[in-house]
What does this fold into?
Amino acid sequence: MALQLNMKDSIEEEDDVMSGSELLQLLKGNMESKQDEEEGRGETWVFKNPECRTWFRKQIKKKVCFVYRATPELKHIFTAALRNSDAIVGVTGEGLGDARALSEADVGFAMGKDGCDAAKDHSDVIMMDDRFETLNTAIRFGRNI
It folds into this structure.
């Protein structure tokens, strides 16, 4: 798919592609579940120790560009990992499974037409149509404010 969208030059570059199940296993080995009492997000994920955070920055954050077959659980833990590594995270979603990742993100974008109410309740921005072109425009204008 990344080749078809011209986001990737060739199939030989496999270092930046990872399956969702493989990434989830790696993240669960370096993170632990915790209740977020500061921001009231409910269950969140944190790195077990500073070495795990350094591992994530060097091995995952700098290398992995594409994740395929991502589950809602992976979206949530990956969003938490990015936030805990000082990244600004935006997440799009429309289903009930996306609600945790949407609330974990710095900015959550829910699809307004076909998105479920739980996704809309946990997001910061609700798109009035479900087109990614609109999302791109919203991000561009948001960066200028």
